[in-house]
């Protein structure tokens, strides 16, 4: 009975992790002299929460319901975006709105235009971004700005709502840092990636085949090192190949395979599916997870002028975020390895992870939503 209760509690905690994934929006600005053409992709689920799009309250958004709120969407969004050149404010005007799909759902695409004052192309742009600042402290705005063939990026959040970007002398170091920060952020909100890795790491402090006994700390560290290194090497390979458009796989296949990898990694803690081959499994499925990371970069975009540096920055960020998770996991697992609680996490927790991942798999294969926000 206790185990059933633990499973229910863990499922209740894990399920909203997918439904309430921290939100991003994607803002692209193209500077042509004094004119700016913009595109802003904002998640429909976030807009529905902020201003209400579901007219009949049935939990399903239709094109007619969204179209009826186009003016409200444009007003709400553009009031929370300020663009100014070094010569003054650039007023924003909505042009059209469309619908597009990202890996985490449907997005409203708001296209707009701005005319900046002055008689020449601006030397710098100052952007203020406060979308959802009062509603979601974890929301991020991912900016891509193109001017004279040079692309730069920046990340906005409630703590960093304003950036000034030079259009004449791009700050390569700041751009590299932005991609590092973005990589860290996306591993931390990638619940399926985290659960896959943690599922493989949970047995690290226990002797193979003897769950009641514990490994030494040095042996546990080496076990963790092998799993993490294999996962890192694999996803770095496919992240690079996919980001450079050398290899491409359908998004639904990738996301479905990632969910399946979480199921197998969790079930391995209940049944010996891999028998000492967790590093091999980490590498094999890490190749698939790399395609998932690459989808984020496709949304953000890679500047051609500093493509390799930006790709490296994002990959470094992913690794730093991953190492932070491992650094928090290993000491806690070592301290708790002899307790009843850790045994429950290993068994009951793994079962709960597998059940939630099964829901994700069905959702992704069938393109439906079983867990609502």
3D structure, described in words:
The chain has 373 residues and is α+β, with helices and mostly antiparallel strands. Helix 6 runs parallel beside helix 8, helix 7 packs parallel to helix 9 and helix 7 packs antiparallel against helix 10.
Lay out the secondary structure.
Blueprint: H1 2-19, E1 24-32, E2 35-43, H2 44-51, H3 63-68, H4 70-78, E3 81-85, E4 88-89, E5 92-102, E6 105-115, E7 124-129, E8 140-147, E9 150-156, E10 162-166, H5 172-188, H6 191-201, E11 206-207, E12 210-214, H7 217-243, H8 251-267, H9 278-300, H10 307-336, H11 340-366
Parallel strand pairs: 1-8
Antiparallel strand pairs: 1-2, 2-6, 3-4, 3-7, 5-6, 7-10, 8-9, 11-12
Keywords: Membrane, Signal, Transmembrane, Transmembrane helix
Transmembrane segments: 185-207, 227-247, 253-273, 280-297, 309-333, 345-362
Signal peptide: 1-19
Please tell me how large the radius of gyration is.
23 Å
Distance between the termini: 28 Å
Largest sheet data: 6 strands, mixed
Structural class, judged by helices and strands?
alpha+beta
| SSE pattern, N- to C-terminal | HEEHHHEEEEEEEEHHEEHHHHH
Spatial shape: globular
Average pLDDT level = 83
Counting H and I runs of at least 4 residues, what is the number of helices?
11
Count of strand segments: 12
Q: Can you give the helix content as a percent range?
A: 40-55%
| Whole-number tally of structural domains | 2
Low-confidence blocks of residues:
5-10, 12-20
Strand order of the largest sheet: 5-6-2-1-8-9
Question: How much of the polypeptide forms β-strand, as a percent range?
Answer: 15-25%
Pfam families: HupE_UreJ_2
Transmembrane segments: 185-207, 227-247, 253-273, 280-297, 309-333, 345-362
Organism: Janthinobacterium lividum
InterPro entries: EF_Hand_1_Ca_BS, Put_HupE_UreJ
